[in-house]
Amino acid sequence: MEVVEITPLELMERKNAGPIELLDVRTPVEFDEMHISFARLVPLDSFDPEKVLGEKFRSAEPIYVICRSGSRGKKACEKLIASGRTNIFNIQGGTLACAQAGLPITRGKIIISLERQVRIAAGFLVAMGSGLGGFIDPLWFILSGFVGCGLMFAGITDTCGMGLMLAKMPWNRKSEQPSCTLK
């Protein structure tokens, strides 16, 4: 079964017709920065369809999935479909397209997107591998080659290992503890 996509405007029409289940599969920090006001956060890195949906898992009610631009949402939809769930919809263009279409958005603190973090980290590793390979030992060029192969793999499979690792970093996690305690 293939993942079915709908536009942000179709999502809003369905929301206006009654309550819907919209799962946002981005990181908690991305969700806090900006999210559709009626979305529920369920990060892709801990996405378990049966735990996420609980009693609704075997229901025929539609489930809508969203991420930043559509790619992670599609992966979550595939997990839901593989687990036997039907009536799953991915939102085309993700949260960015929804914001442009005028859907109700809740905004918070601005952060560096996971996509930009991947570009920064990959660029740093390639530059470091090139510099160390040129000035210290040619074996360091392997680092640049490894990162390049990883980027090609990410482009071909639409799966980014570096993005998954960066999503687990502390700065991409929402702290469960308050930063200070008042007495």
Provide a descriptive summary of the structure in words:
The chain has 183 residues and is of the alpha/beta class. The chain has 2 domains: 4-107, Rhodanese-like domain (Oxidized Rhodanese, domain 1), CATH 3.40.250; 114-172. Helices cover 48% and strands 13% of the residues. The protein has 8 helices and 7 strands; from the N terminus they run E-H-E-H-E-E-H-E-H-E-H-E-H-H-H. It has helices spanning 8-17, 28-33, 49-53, 71-82, 94-101, 114-135, 141-157, 161-167, and strands at residues 4-6, 21-24, 34-36, 39-41, 63-66, 88-91, 105-107. Strands 1-6-5-2-4 form a 5-stranded parallel beta sheet, sandwiched between helices. A two-stranded antiparallel ribbon has the order 3-7. Helix 6 (114-135) runs antiparallel to helix 7 (141-157) and helix 6 (114-135) crosses helix 8 (161-167). The protein is elongated, with a radius of gyration of 19 Å. Residues 176-183 have low confidence and may be disordered.
Q: Please give the CATH class of the largest domain.
A: Alpha Beta
Structural class: alpha/beta
Radius of gyration: 19 Å
Provide the low-confidence segments as ranges. Answer: 176-183
Q: What is the total tally of β strands? A: 7
Q: Give, in spatial order, the strands making up the sheet with the most strands.
A: 1-6-5-2-4
Total helix count?
8
Described by strand count, sense and barrel closure, the largest sheet is: 5 strands, parallel
CATH architecture annotation of the largest domain: 3-Layer(aba) Sandwich
What's the helical proportion of residues?
40-55%
Domain module count: 2
- In whole angstroms, the N-to-C terminal distance is 56 Å
Principal-axis shape equals elongated
Strand content: 5-15%
Query: How do the SSEs run, as a string of H and E?
Result: EHEHEEHEHEHEHHH
